[in-house]
Design brief:
The complex is a heterotrimer of chains A (295), B (257) and C (310). Chain B has 257 residues and is α/β, with parallel strands linked by helices. Chain B has ten helices and ten strands. Chain B has a domain of 172 residues: 3-Layer(aba) Sandwich (Rossmann fold). Chain C is mainly α and 310 residues long. Chain C has a single domain, classed as Orthogonal Bundle (ABC transporter involved in vitamin B12 uptake, BtuC), CATH 1.10.3470. The C terminus of chain C is likely disordered. The chains are: A mainly alpha (295), B alpha/beta (257), C mainly alpha (310). At the A-C interface, helix 3, helix 4, helix 9 and helix 11 of A face helix 4, helix 5, helix 11 and helix 13 of C.
Amino acid sequence: MPSSVELVQSLVNGVGIGLVYGLIAIGFCVIYNASGIVNFAQGVFVMLGGMFTHSLLTKVGVPIALSALISVALVAVVGLLVQFFIITPMWNRKAPLFTIILATLAVQIMIEQIVMLTLGDQPRTYPEFTPGGPLKIGPIAFGYQLFWILGCGILMVAALSVFFQKTRIGRALRACSQNRESAALLGIPVQRMLMLSFALSAALGAAAGILITPTQYTAYSVGGPFGINGFIAAIIGGFGSAPAALVGGVLLGVVQSGAIVFFGAGFKNVVALTILLIVLLFFPNGLFGGLGKRV
Amino acid sequence: MALLKVSNLTKRFDGLLANNGIDFEVPEGGLYAVIGPNGAGKTTFFNMISGFLPPTSGKIEFAGRDITRERQDRIAAMGLIRTFQLVQLFKGMTVVENVEVGCHLATSGGVAAALMRPSWYRKQEMGVRDTARELLAFVGLAEQADLDAELLPYGQQRLLEVARALAAKPRMLLLDEPAAGLNTHETDALAGIIQKVNARGVTVLLIEHDVGLVTRIAHRIAVLDFGRKLTEGTPDEITRHPEVIAAYLGTGDSADA
Amino acid sequence: MSVGCVLVVGLLFGAVLVYGGYLITVLQLAMIYGIFCLGLNFFMGYTGQASFGQNAFAAIGGYGTAILCVEYKWEPALALVFSMAAAGLTSLVVGYPTLRLRGHYLAMATFALGLITYDISVQWTSLTQGYMGYAGIPPLGIGPFTIEDERLKLLCLVVLLLIGLWISQRLRDSRFGRALRAISGSENGAAALGIRISRYKLAAFVIAALYASAAGSLFAHVVGFISPEVFGLQMVVVTFTMLYVGGIGTVYGPALGAIVASLLPEIFRSAGRFQDIAYSAVLLLMLIFEPKGLSALAGLVRSRRAKSGG
């Protein structure tokens, strides 16, 4: 029977990883709301964020802040390339749903393989953004990275909220998600909105990956599980809004953390799926009911 | 005896009151219609009756049973079959196969029967095929039976939906704007079919925009406007009712033949 | 046209049976994947939904058979049936809540299912031997008769695939099959005609799981060794490629797709380390330029009409 210290510690850790899941989840929502596509390759953006940052940091010697920013930009470009060369042509040719998903899976495999062949298959990591710590409050340890995750996470969600509510482009993107046809009729360049959504989503994924890497590791294959957990978080929170996705992520992270304490690390994905199934059983539209059924 | 009884039916979407306290009854054997200008709430009304939209408040009874929040397939199983304003054809199936699906309620047999094919099942399948072809002949689509349903021109797709609904042996048929997009000739054919169906004992309730069609064949008409039931009466009474005329003239619609 | 297909396939098999060699193994796997795809096609083609987690049920079949036959010395046939039952039950339990999702949600949720099963097969080492994989699985057989000759194995698999095809055809041309296809065509229309959508989707899901489990068990027997990788992401991509090639919603499509798509990776074998990249790159190109499937490209006319048969 785990002690209360272990439980509280797992809660703290869970919030950290949960925020990351939340960021990934927001990425899913952005693309889905703008285009009706769920990007199965979302996890790969997470992986690339960590990998690029590590490479820039260790091989080129770029300081961490700059590495992070450059990586985010690079991954956003990757997202754009995927959207432009793969997703859109298929969408325009009225590809059946499962072939688009198959394509994103193929993209994930391809990118993972390329990364493995160019950067090797060794897991790697880099130090926390602020060395030292962890901050100890009683017996509970708060890693410094956790504060970075918290801070950056909240900042990003706030920025996104402002973006979607106050800027013209953001509102246009929201209009797209309400009704693509009407948006097009209103003169909103839907194609460009799609590109924007992919770039944004990729950037969010990359940020998530960059933030979480110091607390674990990154390798060419970490994308898949992150993507899955992010998507589960998105479903739990409902696809309605960024804060909802974040809450979904945190919930998932916390319960998963708790389960690791009780059952061991190997079953954390099992736990994730079970949570998903239970949530779906009682809340078919996600906890916040934001799942608008797009046809 | 009222086959369908709607009491104080209300539907609110956030701020919009789509249906406002509607009371309505259709007796067994009747051929009734609901008309009203665009946005009057007709389709919302139908969707609630057929289980595709939960009402905010009110009660719906069919054959004496409360069906207010019932599942769509259960409502259909009770004998209340509807068609759709936007035709819901079964893509990937032929015209006759579409109608055969309509026979689902009137038949039985699942996986086991499909695999074993006992003699009762084989007979049933033959019956299904025959019924489907009969119904296609009834609506005038006999020649198109083996075409892919999606290839049918719009007007014929609507007829196919009617044939399919009939295959379900309905006690009551809800037709959602069956004449939408049909030309005069097709509308006449449709009117004839609806009357023949009603003569066979099927109660019919239709939503229509085409007032002419409705005044020709309906026994009684209810008029909706802005979610309320304006009035109800025989075709004669309705066409002379000043508020009805105002409601339609206000949107530029006039009773067209 | 279908006569032509049958002839080509027949010749191919004839040639392979006569000449033997590596291609026998390829075709054996094609048959197994074909069975898997038949089931997947059943769910996806006839209900219009996408499940990316059928490999989970194949894993149940594969590991079920492996454990029962090796640890507990069960008869292969019995183990196969038992594993199918286990897979069916699991699909029932998992399908009930998840099938409420549609489209992408369902796809991802089922994808998660596959990943979870992979995780379990890796982590639960006491049961599954983890990464090391499970070896020593006996070949197919009943009682004292075991099938060890490679050609005989292939023939046996062909027979099993044909049985699977027969079942699939029977189910399609029936009230049950019509209801499923109706759901695929229009859920609202189907519900309005009294079809209980959730029940039929679940039935199709379970049927797909049963086929997948059978395929997994057969794989275990034919190859003699399984590991978590066998039932992982690769399987998802390969089987979907097969459906893409052969076309969904058709009766023979999955089997044809399985045969053709099994031969494709052989072309990339020479690429060595780059095999996966080459394969996925080519797949992507095909998907981008002909998303509706290769059969559309070839202009094949596949009979989509139910042959009403008693």
